[in-house]
Amino acid sequence: MIRVVLDTNVLVSALLFEKGRLAWIRHCWQNGRITPVMAEPTVNDQIFLDLAIGAGVQALVSGDRDLLDLADIISVPKILEPEVFRQWLEQPSSPGAAQSGEDPPMS
Question: Quick one: which of 11, 16, 25, 74 has the most CB atoms within 10 Å?
């Protein structure tokens, strides 16, 4: 028996699509040839938080409630909804403050 880690897409495809290209994985699991090793789920969109912290950005902009709920716990980076981020950018003290009343670039 071989222990393996299956990412979410592989696992879902193997389990849902009986005749799909990854159905063989389900059969190997059912026959005892492999044992999937699962990790405890993390906060949704954890990768964005990891990237923001790793890259040292000042803000993470998201509409995801799981990320936004972390704003009270994590101070750097700032975790902001898009409209709050826009307001933050327009403050004279922010690093990206708009000049001459122009909207800040949002790309």
Answer: 25
Q: In 1-107, where does DSSP find H-type helix?
A: 8-16, 23-30, 46-55, 65-68, 82-90
Q: Is residue 104 part of a domain?
A: no
CA distances from 2 to 18, 20, 28, 42, 92 (A): 22, 22, 10, 25, 59
Domain count, the chain: 2
pTM score above 0.70: no
pLDDT digit string, tens, across residues 71-89: 999 888 888 887 688 787 7
CB 78 within 8 A of CB 49: no
- Residue 97, domain member (yes or no): no
83 plus 52 within the same structural domain: yes
Domain that holds residue 12: 2-36
For the chain, what is the total number of helices (H) and then of strands (E)? 5, 4
